[in-house]
Amino acid sequence: MLLPREKRILEILYAKKQGYTSSELAAALHISLRTVKTDIKRIREELEKTGCEILTKAGKGIWLSYDSQGKKYLDSLLLGGECASSMDPKTRKYYIALQLLDSDTYISTESISNSMYISKGTATNDINELIPFFEKQGLTLEKRVKYGIRLLGKESQLRIAKASVIRKIVVYQGSQVSRKLQPFFEDLNIDHINAILQEAEEHFGFILSDASYSELLIHCSIIVRRIRKGKVCAIDETELRAYSEMKEWGICRFIADALEKSFSVHMTEGDRSYLMMNLLGTRMQEHIPAETYSWGDDGADSGQILEQWEDILRHAGDMFRENLIGDETLKIAMFLHLKAMFNRLQHQIHLENPMKRMVREELVYEFEVATYVARLIKEEFHADLGEDEICDIALYLGASLERERAMRNRQSPVVTIVCGSGIGTSQFFEAKLGRIFPEIQVRKIVPISRARYEIGKDTQDFVLATVPLELEGIEVLNVSPMLGERDALLIEERIHPERRQLLISGKEKYPALFALMSERISIFKCDCRSLEEVISLMGRRLIHEKYVKEGFIESVLKREELAPTSIGDKFAVPHAFEGYVLKTGVGLMTLKKPIVWGNEKVQIIMMLSIDIREQEQFREIFSELAAITKNKWAIEQILNAERISDIKIRN
Fold this sequence. Notes:
The protein is α/β, with parallel strands linked by helices. It has 6 domains: 76 residues, Arc Repressor Mutant, subunit A (Orthogonal Bundle), CATH 1.10.10; 65 residues, Winged helix-like DNA-binding domain superfamily/Winged helix DNA-binding domain (Arc Repressor Mutant, subunit A); 122 residues, PTS-regulatory domain, PRD, CATH 1.10.1790; 115 residues, PRD domain (PTS-regulatory domain, PRD), CATH 1.10.1790; 98 residues, Rossmann fold, CATH 3.40.50; 136 residues, Mannitol-specific EII, Chain A, CATH 3.40.930. It is built from 27 helices and 13 strands. Strands 9-12-13-11-10 form a 5-stranded mixed sheet. Strand 10 and strand 11 form a beta hairpin. Helix 18 crosses helix 19. It is globular, with a radius of gyration of 27 Å.
């Protein structure tokens, strides 16, 4: 078996596909020439009969040679793993974080660097990069001369931080989650915990989304390991009393009792509270009919939270001219989601939304409505939502808007949907599917972890999977969770081959967007270096041309603080909150070089002076924005233009 550093040498040689000198390898890995030679000898022995070998030649260096069998071996070894390499600079620091989180005493930078095969300086830099992450988790990194460094914080915070680190290293969504997590808990049999969680799902009649299932599996594993090390969570009597009155407490007790029996450990009330805290933060993939849901089952504070949530929906619906308050399915689903989300935020549990980029690019209008909802949530509940949470809300809102447009009561083919990202994603997908294909009947929605057990050969016409899936003897169409145009064409080809062409529409013309542009509020090939500079320059131009009021620039900057307005593919659409628009228009700016805007690189800025209360126009603009970002020809024209008249979008 190859050691991590030996595997890294193979990664370097395979990526470059040409010779490396021993000195270059030594410099890249921060090791000596002698160590390089020793490692190369070991790797040669490991590669025997694999179809690949390491060759060396004076003047040329060291390189990999392989045949087709060897290429398959290397692809599987280096590219097919579920864990990010510990030698990868982007993830290496998280392996260091694991060492710090697992250490009960001070640990020296030298011992960390030796274990990671990196220099002491590199280890120090990685540790410094981890400080903001630890602070976000409520932990303090203590440094002491001659002793080293250690992490200080409550037991619950240390556990949450470790779960977060493992999430950043492992790609664990799918049916093989136990195998992927096992290397992080070598002294535990993860399959036993897997069986406990599956038994809990069946016993209590709920299904966790794949991401939440994996999350709970990690936390249960951490609980057992920490208890074995003599580490227990402190008891908060007030929190414990509140938990014991909730319906989920029975699930928590069931899992805790099973963990105690299976691993011969004792879970204190503090440990059970910690488990309950994480259980409440999960996303349960269940569809609750509005007419059967009982609000009183969710704790004493449900009534007040519901009233506040209804006010938010009513306010947002009024602002965007949408009937959000009238959608009981949205109200229930988001109410349950909010309670879980507030629990995570309260305990500093940060879950990344794996669909964030797709939501930002495909659901531009829904994301804008969700950002407004997030602003109202902050005012009402004093909770700061990040981009991941706003994307969750956008999916629920997207589902609601799709349901509103959907046609009903048509005979249909029967399908089963396999969806791995939780209730918001599955609701959005099902609703959009219903609008585009009202004749399709959805038999059931299942997570990928249960697909092979719950989908029979004769129970549906075909399966729609939003995650990669193959089922023996069953037709599976793999589609995007956003159900884009290509996916719709694929489904249309399957159920109505003769009508396929009806879905192909000419979206390469953007009349609403370009009708609102003017040379007077356009700036081309600008030298701005930051989003603040762009917003200030464009904002002053809009104010000067009497499109917006004074205060517009400050409002735009506040809107950016809530969530960046970059939407992918080089575009950003900065705009203010309501109350500043004097005249409708779209200011256009292009940049000579891209700048960082949130997590994106941006070179085309469309600053909006649009009243969000003009619903149809607002939705049309955002629809065209979502479409134009996918039009490479249009992007090229815009970037090359010297004036608005140079942009001629083809039919």
